[in-house]
Amino acid sequence: MITPTLEVAxxxxxxxxxxGVVKAVDGISFKVDEGEVxxxxxxxxxxxxxxxxxxxxxVDPPGEVVDGGILFHGRNLVELPDEEMRDLRGSKIAMxxxxxxxxxxxxxxxxTQMVEAVRAHKNVSRDSAYQxxxxxxxxxxIASPDERLKAYPHQFSGGMRQRVAIAxxxxxxxxxxxxxxxxxxxxxxxxxxxxxxxQKLCRRTGTxxxxxxxxxxxxxxxxxxxxxxxxxxxxxHGSVDEVLDTPLHPYTYxxxxxxxxxxRRGRPLHQIPGMTPSLLNLPPGCAFRDRCPRATEVCMExxxxxxxxxxxTARCFHPHVNGDKSRRAEMExxxx
Amino acid sequence: xxxxxxxxLLQALVVIFLMSLIVFAGINIxxxxxxxxxxxxxxxxxxxxxxxxxxxxxxWHEQYGYFLLNAFKGDLGNSFIFAEPALKLILxxxxxxxxLAFAAxxxxxxxxxxxxxxxxxxxxxxxxxxxMAGSILGFSLPTFWVxxxxxxxxxxxxxxxxxxxxxxxxxxxxxxxxxxxxxGIQHLILPAFNLALFKMSLxxxxxxxxxxxxxxxxYIKFARAKGLSSRRVVLVHVAKNIMIPVVTVLGLExxxxxxxAVVTETVFAWPGMGKLLIDSIQxxxxxxxxxxxxxxxxxxxxxxxxxxxxxSILDPRVRLxxxxx
Lengths: 336, 325
Ligand SMILES: Nc1ncnc2c1ncn2[C@@H]1O[C@H](COP(=O)(O)OP(=O)(O)OP(=O)(O)O)[C@@H](O)[C@H]1O
Ligand code: SF4
Ligand SMILES: [Mg+2]
Description:
heterodimer, A: alpha/beta, 8-stranded mixed β-sheet, 4-stranded antiparallel β-sheet, 11 helices, globular, B: mainly alpha, MetI-like fold, 2 domains, 12 helices, 2 strands, 2% strand, binds adenosine-5'-triphosphate, binds iron/sulfur cluster, binds magnesium ion
């Protein structure tokens, strides 16, 4: 068996704040193979970004990875010395941040910010680093790259900035890209274009990708596998089709119900009632309990991640299994 | 850009005009120089001749008109005491003051920025807390007192450094400067440090606040995500962003440093314009006082202009046409 590009095992990242311990990530496991796209899905505050920062080693105090392993090509990043970790960042593992307006330094020109990213890892001349930057900008669909390289971030639109950030992530041809909702700030056409390009890239170069989003429609067309997060934990794993067609966890079930679809047009969106619980002093038991229509007495205990067929797991005592109608079929029936 | 500069210079002219009016009227109220200027033994005829020679027999608005007329020709009047053009007297002393002011600014920046950035990056360390405590002292201790203490400790008790005058000067581009000789530098250290202390505390605070804010920005995390060394992140990505407020404030403060030099120059007998001003006020040497104030205002305006231009170079988001003139 080939080792996956990335394997995260029981990762816990906590923030030790004045008000108590925020368990932003509290036990999550997944793996991403070469050329594979993993969709990391969950609502706001579920710990997606913190998971990303944990992998790339950028959790700042008061946060700390307190438990678990992050195996990158079989090497545990948690134990890696700082200098080796720095060298991996941006060369083997790249991250695209959530907010394109804030990721580029406002007082440095684009060429400075791209050239330094190349030269931090490769001992090449300024000139060849510049050529590499130019090439990459063209690859993400930026016209007249020479002019653009001379510009400052404020001269770019949000969409353009995100393309530049994506180009920076691609500069050193990383083995793993963590894309933190990189398209939410963009309009739909550009979104589709970037998704298409990202997928093409992974297939072609064998780059593994973690695509973080709260929007299931985005991962539906892009990801191979899905990991659903809730309150810092993984609650469901499976291939895209399995998870979307037959969601096991009541939370995933609800999420899919809240996605607008073509044949439900005009009907109110189904919302999951309630809110993400506060991660500060989360009570024991299933974190979804208060919002779950299927909750019973046993849910006062923490449900384990239980297997449901190959590559298929869910963290729930009463999952939507056999006998339940397919969720998609059900929704289609509803809309008739 | 040139439109911007021309507009600023025109505004400057208006300010200088108003300023001269206020100063002229004000100093007329302060006192009559005649009593100080004329020897007690002089007879009435002599007194009247002197008064007429100095133009003091006319009403003050007439004197002002006459002054203005001459000022347009570049003549700010003659000193009552030295019987030399006031402008010349001030320009002679100006290099000494400018040298002191720039040396103080240099000290404030060279020590203030690294100390402030350190305190901003590691806000909880003991070193940072010491730095901040020091900056509070620098803010609150009066300049003349610190000056006297410096003299007492380093000149009197330890005998390491001289306490008065400029020391040996050398000519650089037709100007006498101290910083090119070892003796001159020794004379410069104490007064420059004295003058720098307040500004250094200011720079430390600005740099610390800026660093704390910038360090939390996404673009700093993104810079780290690119795998840059922390050295480059701090020295380029953080430093360039905090330079904007630091340079702006420091530039605006340069005028203040020159004006504040009056105290330091008096304590250290530094032969600059500040010392000349104090002497002239005591002797009611009106033309010199007026000329000094006009030149200072002019310098303030010039400095602000340069700061605006610098600002637009440092911050690409600001273009000169956007700067409020
Ligand atoms: N520096 C910090 N100090 C304390 N708590 C933090 C810190 N950073 C993140 N958290 C907490 O960790 C939790 C998860 O945050 P995270 O940013 O990972 O959510 P997310 O899933 O990315 O949400 P979104 O979709 O809004 O980006 C949140 O409850 C947040 O309050
Ligand atoms: S464990 Fe219980 S409360 Fe939690 S999701 Fe499953 S049914 Fe709902
Ligand atoms: Mg996030």
